[in-house]
Amino acid sequence: MSADIIKGKELAHKLKEEMSKEVLFLKEQGLVPHLTVILIGDNPASKSYVNGKKKASGETGISSDVIEMGVSTSEKELLKKIQELNNDQSVHGILVQLPLPKHIDEQHVIEAISPAKDVDGFHPINIGRMITGKDTFLPCTPSGILTMLKSYDVTIEGKHAVIIGRSNIVGKPVGQLLLNENATVTYCHSKTTKLIDFTSKADILIVAVGRPNAIREEHIKEGAAVIDVGINRLEDGSLTGDVDFDAVFEKASYISPVPRGVGPMTITMLLQNTIKAAKGLSKSER
Ligand SMILES: Nc1nc2c(c(=O)[nH]1)N[C@@H](CN(C=O)c1ccc(C(=O)N[C@@H](CCC(=O)O)C(=O)O)cc1)CN2
Q1: 69 conformational bin, left if phi > 0, alpha if psi -120 to 50, beta if neither
Q2: What is the pLDDT tens value at each position of the chain, 286 positions in all?
Protein backbone atom coordinates (compact mmCIF):
# COMPACT_ATOMS: atom_id res chain seq x y z
CA MET A 1 0.00 0.00 0.00
CA SER A 2 1.08 3.57 -0.53
CA ALA A 3 -0.63 6.73 0.62
CA ASP A 4 -2.58 9.46 -1.17
CA ILE A 5 -0.70 12.71 -0.64
CA ILE A 6 -2.89 15.42 0.88
CA LYS A 7 -1.71 18.38 -1.15
CA GLY A 8 -2.39 21.36 1.09
CA LYS A 9 -0.90 23.83 -1.33
CA GLU A 10 -3.16 22.74 -4.21
CA LEU A 11 -6.21 22.79 -1.99
CA ALA A 12 -5.24 26.23 -0.66
CA HIS A 13 -4.96 27.49 -4.25
CA LYS A 14 -8.43 26.20 -5.10
CA LEU A 15 -9.97 27.72 -1.97
CA LYS A 16 -8.27 31.06 -2.63
CA GLU A 17 -9.77 31.14 -6.14
CA GLU A 18 -13.22 30.62 -4.64
CA MET A 19 -12.58 33.30 -2.01
CA SER A 20 -11.47 35.82 -4.67
CA LYS A 21 -14.92 35.57 -6.23
CA GLU A 22 -16.57 36.20 -2.88
CA VAL A 23 -14.28 39.15 -2.16
CA LEU A 24 -15.10 40.62 -5.57
CA PHE A 25 -18.80 40.31 -4.78
CA LEU A 26 -18.30 42.00 -1.38
CA LYS A 27 -16.34 44.81 -3.05
CA GLU A 28 -19.25 45.38 -5.42
CA GLN A 29 -21.39 45.89 -2.29
CA GLY A 30 -18.83 48.40 -1.00
CA LEU A 31 -17.19 46.09 1.56
CA VAL A 32 -13.42 45.59 1.30
CA PRO A 33 -12.21 43.02 3.87
CA HIS A 34 -9.14 44.37 5.66
CA LEU A 35 -6.57 42.46 7.71
CA THR A 36 -3.98 44.13 9.93
CA VAL A 37 -0.99 42.04 10.99
CA ILE A 38 1.30 43.15 13.80
CA LEU A 39 4.87 41.91 13.69
CA ILE A 40 7.09 42.48 16.71
CA GLY A 41 10.85 42.19 16.25
CA ASP A 42 12.83 40.65 13.42
CA ASN A 43 12.46 36.88 13.73
CA PRO A 44 13.15 35.74 10.12
CA ALA A 45 10.58 32.91 10.18
CA SER A 46 7.86 35.25 11.52
CA LYS A 47 8.77 37.83 8.86
CA SER A 48 8.43 35.22 6.16
CA TYR A 49 5.03 34.00 7.46
CA VAL A 50 3.80 37.60 7.66
CA ASN A 51 4.93 38.20 4.07
CA GLY A 52 3.07 35.02 3.08
CA LYS A 53 -0.09 36.38 4.73
CA LYS A 54 0.25 39.72 2.95
CA LYS A 55 0.87 38.06 -0.41
CA ALA A 56 -2.05 35.63 -0.05
CA SER A 57 -4.36 38.48 1.02
CA GLY A 58 -3.40 40.45 -2.11
CA GLU A 59 -3.97 37.42 -4.36
CA THR A 60 -7.48 37.07 -2.97
CA GLY A 61 -8.35 40.77 -3.16
CA ILE A 62 -8.29 41.22 0.61
CA SER A 63 -6.65 44.46 1.67
CA SER A 64 -3.97 44.16 4.34
CA ASP A 65 -1.27 46.08 6.14
CA VAL A 66 1.60 45.08 8.39
CA ILE A 67 2.51 47.12 11.45
CA GLU A 68 6.14 46.43 12.31
CA MET A 69 7.17 47.22 15.89
CA GLY A 70 10.67 46.92 17.34
CA VAL A 71 11.78 44.02 19.51
CA SER A 72 11.89 46.30 22.56
CA THR A 73 8.23 47.33 22.20
CA SER A 74 6.60 47.14 25.62
CA GLU A 75 3.46 45.13 26.33
CA LYS A 76 1.69 48.41 27.16
CA GLU A 77 2.56 49.91 23.75
CA LEU A 78 1.37 46.79 21.98
CA LEU A 79 -1.90 46.71 23.92
CA LYS A 80 -2.47 50.38 23.07
CA LYS A 81 -1.97 49.65 19.36
CA ILE A 82 -4.41 46.76 19.55
CA GLN A 83 -6.97 49.00 21.24
CA GLU A 84 -6.64 51.53 18.39
CA LEU A 85 -7.23 48.77 15.84
CA ASN A 86 -10.20 47.42 17.82
CA ASN A 87 -11.77 50.89 17.49
CA ASP A 88 -10.92 51.31 13.80
CA GLN A 89 -14.03 50.44 11.77
CA SER A 90 -11.98 49.96 8.58
CA VAL A 91 -10.04 47.04 10.16
CA HIS A 92 -11.96 43.75 10.16
CA GLY A 93 -9.26 41.32 11.26
CA ILE A 94 -6.33 41.75 13.66
CA LEU A 95 -3.50 39.25 13.98
CA VAL A 96 -0.41 39.46 16.15
CA GLN A 97 2.28 37.18 14.76
CA LEU A 98 3.57 34.65 17.33
CA PRO A 99 5.88 33.97 19.06
CA LEU A 100 6.33 37.28 20.89
CA PRO A 101 9.49 38.45 22.65
CA LYS A 102 9.71 36.98 26.16
CA HIS A 103 8.91 40.25 27.98
CA ILE A 104 5.41 40.33 26.45
CA ASP A 105 2.70 38.09 27.87
CA GLU A 106 1.12 36.30 24.89
CA GLN A 107 -2.16 35.67 26.68
CA HIS A 108 -2.61 39.37 27.60
CA VAL A 109 -2.16 40.21 23.92
CA ILE A 110 -4.57 37.55 22.68
CA GLU A 111 -7.21 38.68 25.15
CA ALA A 112 -6.80 42.35 24.14
CA ILE A 113 -7.98 41.67 20.58
CA SER A 114 -11.70 42.16 20.11
CA PRO A 115 -13.25 38.67 19.72
CA ALA A 116 -15.07 40.03 16.63
CA LYS A 117 -11.71 40.80 14.96
CA ASP A 118 -9.81 37.77 16.30
CA VAL A 119 -9.10 36.12 12.94
CA ASP A 120 -6.54 33.82 14.60
CA GLY A 121 -9.35 32.33 16.70
CA PHE A 122 -7.21 32.38 19.85
CA HIS A 123 -9.36 34.59 22.11
CA PRO A 124 -10.88 32.62 25.04
CA ILE A 125 -14.37 33.67 23.92
CA ASN A 126 -13.79 32.18 20.48
CA ILE A 127 -12.16 29.08 21.96
CA GLY A 128 -15.22 28.67 24.18
CA ARG A 129 -17.52 29.05 21.18
CA MET A 130 -15.48 26.43 19.30
CA ILE A 131 -15.68 23.98 22.24
CA THR A 132 -19.44 24.40 22.45
CA GLY A 133 -19.76 23.93 18.67
CA LYS A 134 -20.96 27.49 17.93
CA ASP A 135 -20.15 29.49 14.81
CA THR A 136 -16.90 31.34 15.41
CA PHE A 137 -13.40 32.07 14.11
CA LEU A 138 -11.63 28.72 14.26
CA PRO A 139 -7.85 28.65 14.85
CA CYS A 140 -6.25 28.55 11.40
CA THR A 141 -3.95 25.52 11.52
CA PRO A 142 -6.57 23.25 13.15
CA SER A 143 -9.32 24.33 10.75
CA GLY A 144 -6.89 23.88 7.85
CA ILE A 145 -6.27 20.32 8.99
CA LEU A 146 -9.99 19.57 9.23
CA THR A 147 -10.53 21.07 5.76
CA MET A 148 -7.74 18.88 4.37
CA LEU A 149 -9.19 15.69 5.88
CA LYS A 150 -12.70 16.50 4.66
CA SER A 151 -11.56 17.48 1.16
CA TYR A 152 -9.87 14.10 0.80
CA ASP A 153 -12.98 12.31 2.16
CA VAL A 154 -11.17 10.93 5.19
CA THR A 155 -13.84 9.54 7.53
CA ILE A 156 -13.63 11.23 10.93
CA GLU A 157 -16.79 10.09 12.72
CA GLY A 158 -16.18 7.03 14.90
CA LYS A 159 -12.44 7.00 14.13
CA HIS A 160 -9.66 7.11 16.68
CA ALA A 161 -7.72 10.36 16.31
CA VAL A 162 -4.42 10.69 18.15
CA ILE A 163 -2.88 14.14 18.53
CA ILE A 164 0.79 14.44 19.43
CA GLY A 165 1.24 17.90 20.92
CA ARG A 166 -0.87 19.99 23.27
CA SER A 167 -0.16 23.60 22.27
CA ASN A 168 -2.98 26.14 22.50
CA ILE A 169 -2.65 27.00 18.81
CA VAL A 170 -2.54 23.51 17.27
CA GLY A 171 -2.76 20.41 19.48
CA LYS A 172 -5.59 21.28 21.85
CA PRO A 173 -7.91 22.91 19.27
CA VAL A 174 -7.40 20.30 16.54
CA GLY A 175 -8.39 17.60 19.04
CA GLN A 176 -11.50 19.59 19.92
CA LEU A 177 -12.48 20.03 16.25
CA LEU A 178 -12.06 16.30 15.67
CA LEU A 179 -14.16 15.60 18.76
CA ASN A 180 -16.83 17.96 17.40
CA GLU A 181 -16.84 15.70 14.30
CA ASN A 182 -17.43 12.64 16.52
CA ALA A 183 -13.93 11.18 16.50
CA THR A 184 -12.58 9.52 19.64
CA VAL A 185 -9.63 11.68 20.58
CA THR A 186 -6.43 10.88 22.48
CA TYR A 187 -3.83 13.54 23.31
CA CYS A 188 -0.16 12.59 23.61
CA HIS A 189 2.59 14.96 24.75
CA SER A 190 6.12 15.17 26.08
CA LYS A 191 5.22 13.28 29.27
CA THR A 192 3.39 10.46 27.48
CA THR A 193 5.13 7.17 28.13
CA LYS A 194 5.23 4.57 25.33
CA LEU A 195 4.04 6.94 22.59
CA ILE A 196 3.96 4.06 20.12
CA ASP A 197 1.20 2.32 22.11
CA PHE A 198 -1.06 5.24 21.20
CA THR A 199 0.13 6.18 17.72
CA SER A 200 -0.07 2.58 16.48
CA LYS A 201 -3.82 2.58 17.27
CA ALA A 202 -4.57 5.86 15.47
CA ASP A 203 -6.82 5.95 12.41
CA ILE A 204 -5.98 9.66 12.18
CA LEU A 205 -2.62 10.82 13.49
CA ILE A 206 -1.88 14.54 13.88
CA VAL A 207 1.80 15.15 14.52
CA ALA A 208 2.94 18.46 16.09
CA VAL A 209 6.10 17.42 17.89
CA GLY A 210 8.71 19.87 16.52
CA ARG A 211 11.40 17.26 15.77
CA PRO A 212 12.35 15.78 12.38
CA ASN A 213 11.64 12.04 11.97
CA ALA A 214 9.94 11.82 15.38
CA ILE A 215 7.30 9.59 13.77
CA ARG A 216 8.45 6.63 11.74
CA GLU A 217 6.93 3.64 9.99
CA GLU A 218 6.73 1.57 13.22
CA HIS A 219 4.56 4.24 14.92
CA ILE A 220 1.81 4.01 12.29
CA LYS A 221 -1.27 1.83 11.99
CA GLU A 222 -1.64 0.36 8.49
CA GLY A 223 -3.99 2.60 6.48
CA ALA A 224 -3.89 5.58 8.85
CA ALA A 225 -4.30 9.22 7.76
CA VAL A 226 -1.20 11.10 8.91
CA ILE A 227 -1.07 14.91 9.10
CA ASP A 228 2.35 16.43 9.67
CA VAL A 229 2.26 19.84 11.35
CA GLY A 230 6.02 20.03 11.96
CA ILE A 231 8.08 22.90 10.54
CA ASN A 232 11.78 22.10 11.05
CA ARG A 233 14.48 24.07 9.27
CA LEU A 234 17.51 21.88 8.47
CA GLU A 235 21.11 23.12 8.37
CA ASP A 236 21.06 23.23 4.56
CA GLY A 237 18.08 25.63 4.79
CA SER A 238 15.50 23.09 3.62
CA LEU A 239 12.27 22.48 5.47
CA THR A 240 11.09 19.15 6.86
CA GLY A 241 8.22 17.94 9.02
CA ASP A 242 8.08 15.65 12.06
CA VAL A 243 7.24 12.51 10.08
CA ASP A 244 9.61 10.24 8.16
CA PHE A 245 7.63 10.85 4.97
CA ASP A 246 9.12 8.18 2.68
CA ALA A 247 8.70 5.32 5.16
CA VAL A 248 5.26 6.34 6.42
CA PHE A 249 4.05 6.94 2.83
CA GLU A 250 4.29 3.16 2.24
CA LYS A 251 2.07 2.26 5.21
CA ALA A 252 -0.48 5.08 5.53
CA SER A 253 -3.61 5.71 3.42
CA TYR A 254 -3.15 9.49 3.47
CA ILE A 255 -0.19 11.67 4.34
CA SER A 256 0.40 15.42 4.23
CA PRO A 257 3.85 16.62 3.16
CA VAL A 258 6.07 19.39 4.54
CA PRO A 259 6.39 21.83 2.86
CA ARG A 260 3.18 22.29 0.79
CA GLY A 261 0.90 20.60 3.33
CA VAL A 262 -0.58 22.21 6.41
CA GLY A 263 1.37 25.52 6.16
CA PRO A 264 -0.40 26.96 3.09
CA MET A 265 -3.75 25.91 4.56
CA THR A 266 -3.03 27.91 7.74
CA ILE A 267 -2.79 31.08 5.68
CA THR A 268 -5.87 30.21 3.62
CA MET A 269 -7.98 29.71 6.74
CA LEU A 270 -6.82 33.13 7.95
CA LEU A 271 -8.21 34.67 4.75
CA GLN A 272 -11.47 32.80 5.29
CA ASN A 273 -11.69 34.20 8.83
CA THR A 274 -10.95 37.72 7.56
CA ILE A 275 -13.83 37.52 5.10
CA LYS A 276 -16.05 36.21 7.88
CA ALA A 277 -14.98 39.09 10.14
CA ALA A 278 -15.72 41.61 7.40
CA LYS A 279 -19.18 40.14 6.93
CA GLY A 280 -19.64 40.52 10.70
CA LEU A 281 -20.70 36.94 11.36
CA SER A 282 -19.71 37.34 14.99
CA LYS A 283 -21.53 40.66 15.39
CA SER A 284 -22.88 39.66 18.79
CA GLU A 285 -19.35 39.81 20.21
CA ARG A 286 -18.53 43.32 18.98
N1 LIG B 1 -0.55 34.62 15.11
C2 LIG B 1 -0.12 33.43 14.66
N3 LIG B 1 1.19 33.10 14.80
C4 LIG B 1 1.61 31.89 14.35
C5 LIG B 1 0.71 30.99 13.71
C6 LIG B 1 -0.64 31.36 13.60
O7 LIG B 1 -1.51 30.61 13.08
N8 LIG B 1 -1.01 32.59 14.07
N9 LIG B 1 1.19 29.80 13.13
C10 LIG B 1 2.62 29.59 13.00
C11 LIG B 1 3.28 30.11 11.75
N12 LIG B 1 2.48 30.29 10.54
C13 LIG B 1 1.56 31.29 10.53
O14 LIG B 1 1.66 32.28 11.18
C15 LIG B 1 2.77 29.61 9.32
C16 LIG B 1 3.70 28.61 9.24
C17 LIG B 1 4.00 28.01 8.01
C18 LIG B 1 3.38 28.43 6.86
C19 LIG B 1 3.72 27.89 5.50
O20 LIG B 1 3.06 28.20 4.54
N21 LIG B 1 4.76 27.07 5.36
C22 LIG B 1 5.20 26.60 4.07
C23 LIG B 1 6.70 26.70 3.97
C24 LIG B 1 7.20 28.09 4.08
C25 LIG B 1 8.71 28.14 4.11
O26 LIG B 1 9.35 27.69 3.16
O27 LIG B 1 9.25 28.65 5.12
C28 LIG B 1 4.79 25.16 3.87
O29 LIG B 1 4.64 24.43 4.88
O30 LIG B 1 4.65 24.76 2.73
C31 LIG B 1 2.45 29.42 6.94
C32 LIG B 1 2.14 30.00 8.16
C33 LIG B 1 3.35 30.21 14.18
N34 LIG B 1 2.91 31.53 14.45
Answers
A1: beta
A2: 799 999 999 999 999 999 999 999 999 999 999 999 999 999 999 999 999 999 999 999 999 999 999 999 999 999 999 999 999 999 999 999 999 999 999 999 999 999 999 999 999 999 999 999 999 999 999 999 999 999 999 999 999 999 999 999 999 999 999 999 999 999 999 999 999 999 999 999 999 999 999 999 999 999 999 999 999 999 999 999 999 999 999 999 999 999 999 999 999 999 999 999 999 954 544 4
Q: Locate the ligand 1 atom nearest the alpha carbon of residue 270 and give its number.
A: 7
Q: Is the ipTM of this complex over 0.85?
A: yes
* Residues carrying an active site annotation: 53, 97, 120
Burial 156-169 (b: 16+ CB within 10 A, else e): beebbbbbbbbeeb
Q: Whose CA is nearest to atom 1 of ligand 1?
A: 97
Query: Measuring from atom 34 of ligand 1, which residue has the nearest CA?
Result: 98
Tell me if 225 sits within 8 A of 252, measured CB to CB.
Answer: yes
Q: Could you give the domains of the chain?
A: 26-114 (3.40.50.10860), 140-263 (3.40.50.720)
Positive/negative CA dihedral, 118, 122, 127, 133: positive
CA of 278 to the centre of ligand 1 (A): 23
Pocket residues for ligand 1 (CB within 6 Å)? 48-49, 52, 95-98, 120, 140-141, 169, 231, 239, 258-261, 263-264, 266-267
Question: Measuring from atom 16 of ligand 1, which residue has the nearest CA?
Answer: 263
